[in-house]
Write a structure and sequence with these properties.
Blueprint (H helix, E strand, L loop, with lengths): L26 H15 L5 E6 L1 H12 L4 E7 L4 E2 L16 H10 L5 H5 L2 E4 L2 E4 L3 H11 L1 E2 L1 H6 L4 E6 L7 H10 L3 E6 L6 H4 L1 H13 L4
Parallel strand pairs: 1-2, 2-7, 7-8
Antiparallel strand pairs: 3-6, 4-5
Helix pairs in contact: 1-2
Length: 218
């Protein structure tokens, strides 16, 4: 992405970020984290947000509630009517003796996106584990479930919505409704692709994002 400064923000309880001791995975907590980062580290200048799944909801909700800090938004495969269940994650072990055993624990829990989850795997003196907050992810999902049409429709900045037709998280009919109801919104559909477009169809993902960014008035 020539000409763009790209920052990958690990959200609370994910990646290398700390796990909040009070298990606060509320909508407001996620959004305040983003606001603090933009204001304290980037000087409060408006940014373009790109978010996948949970990150996508955070992105469009942030644009609705902090419009002065958002130039544009890219949402990868998530909708506005959510009712997911991540309780299965609580079946995962804190540590496994090998990476293969850790992968097997995902299979036993019914996880299909094995490679997606093992991106968060790490090894320490106690064995192999996951960086994300196992006990907190179900709470995070409970907080994200609901009807978020008001947030989706409240912002006015340019939005790009990316959807994979084999996604378990967003239907094509909802994606089309989201675009038809919100002005200044574009939909790009990836046929035969699932929830993680950026890993399943990287070239197409890059092309769609690059085209959208190229049309923004910076």
């Amino acid at each position: 992405m020539t000409g763009w400064r790209i920052i990958g923000l690990d959200q609370r309880g994910h990646g290398w970020s700390e796990h909040p001791p009070d298990k606060d995975y509320s909508r407001e907590a996620y959004l305040q984290d983003i606001a603090a980062f933009i204001r304290e580290e980037l000087g409060g200048q408006p940014v373009t947000l790109l978010g996948h799944s949970l990150g996508g909801v955070n992105a469009y909700q942030f644009a609705a509630r902090y419009p002065e800090l958002v130039h544009a938004v890219i949402v990868e495969d998530i909708g506005v009517e959510l009712g997911g269940d991540l309780s299965f994650i609580e079946q995962l072990p804190d540590r496994s003796s090998t990476l293969q055993e850790l992968r097997e624990s995902l299979k036993r829990a019914g996880v299909r996106a094995i490679d997606y989850f093992t991106e968060s795997a790490f090894e320490d003196e106690n064995g192999w584990g996951f960086r994300f907050d196992i006990k907190g992810m179900s709470l995070s999902q409970q907080q994200i479930n609901g009807d978020w049409w008001d947030d989706w429709l409240s912002s006015t900045c340019p939005v790009l919505l990316l959807h994979g037709t084999k996604s378990f998280a967003l239907t094509l009919s909802q994606a089309e409704l989201m675009v038809s109801r919100r002005p200044n919104t574009r939909l790009v559909v990836f046929e035969g692709i699932g929830h993680s477009i950026h890993t399943e169809e990287l070239d197409g993902f890059y092309k769609a994002v690059k085209e959208f960014l190229g049309e923004l008035d910076r």
